UniProtKB/TrEMBL annotation:
This is tRNA pseudouridine synthase A. The lineage of its organism: Bacteria, Pseudomonadati, Pseudomonadota, Alphaproteobacteria, Rhodobacterales. One of its GO terms (molecular function) is tRNA pseudouridine(38-40) synthase activity. Residues 9-108, 149-254 form the Pseudouridine synthase I TruA alpha/beta domain. It catalyses: uridine(38/39/40) in tRNA = pseudouridine(38/39/40) in tRNA. The gene is truA. GO terms for biological process: tRNA pseudouridine synthesis.
Length: 260
């Protein structure tokens, strides 16, 4: 039974998250439904796919990675085209596909996840980017946010920056990188936060960005981020920012299945 890796892009607004749910639309459910139109699945005609990460309701993806097992030998390009046909008109697209080994796993073979968070600063309501950015009205200090972010890079107990609903066995994670870029736009300024780690805790990125926004706004000194981290207490965290600015931007593997 051949296994295929799928690179998936989606707009998270219409979905209750990645994970399949019985009574709400999900990205996983949409792809599994499309697969069933290509060939019946092994479980009463249904398919089950696995992903590199489970994004929450309203969170987007530029390059989520999932895998599926199919009975038929598909040429990867044809599989991509067929799935995209059956996914219409949902805002989900398979942007690449590749056949992989039977022991390759979208989640367990992954070595890093990369997230992007877009924050728009302007007074007027967002129009073209509505639902795709977190918008705030007051100016932010880029250097102050970078100074605050520097305290979070490395291996730490991130209890402060994870949801109380997080099911991870340990709050200790290694955050390999945070970069913050300021982009001047025709109207307003956009800040792009990029975070990279082997894995993340539930709500970790949104908690970090929400806290750094408080630093940029002048409500927190940068040093307070270090104090919040050391507290290992959820109550010490800044506000959790909304999901619409967050994107799963990429997943890294020892060998990229989509190259070649």
């Amino acid at each position: 039974m051949p296994r295929y890796a799928l690179k998936v892009e989606y707009h998270g607004a219409p979905f209750a998250g990645w994970q399949r749910q019985a009574d709400q639309p999900s990205v996983q459910g949409a792809i599994e439904t499309a697969l069933a139109k290509l060939e019946p699945g092994p479980q009463d005609g249904a398919h089950t796919i696995a992903a590199a990460g489970r994004t929450d309701a309203g969170v987007h993806a530029l390059a989520q990675v999932a895998h599926c097992d199919l009975a038929r030998d598909w040429e990867a390009f044809r599989l991509m085209e067929a799935l995209n046909y059956h996914l219409k008109p949902l805002p989900v697209a398979i942007v690449d596909a590749a056949e992989v080994g039977e022991d390759w796993h979208a989640r367990f073979s992954a070595r890093e996840r990369r997230y992007l968070f877009r924050l728009l600063v302007r007074r007027a309501p967002a129009t073209h980017d509505k639902g795709l950015v977190w918008q705030v009205k007051n100016p932010l200090d880029l250097q102050a946010m970078r100074d605050g972010a520097a305290h979070l890079v490395g291996r730490h107990d991130f209890t402060t920056f994870r949801s109380t609903m997080c099911q991870a066995d340990s709050p200790v994670k290694t955050l390999d990188e945070i970069t913050i870029e300021e982009i001047a736009r025709e109207t307003g300024v956009e800040f792009r936060f990029r975070l990279r780690a082997r894995s993340f805790l539930h709500n970790q990125v949104r908690s970090i960005v929400g806290t750094l926004e408080r630093v940029g706004a002048g409500s927190w000194p940068a040093e307070r981020v270090k104090e919040a981290l050391r507290a290992a207490d959820r109550a010490a965290c800044g506000p959790v920012c909304p999901p619409e600015g967050l994107y799963l931007a990429g997943v890294g593997y020892p060998e990229d299945p989509f190259e070649g």
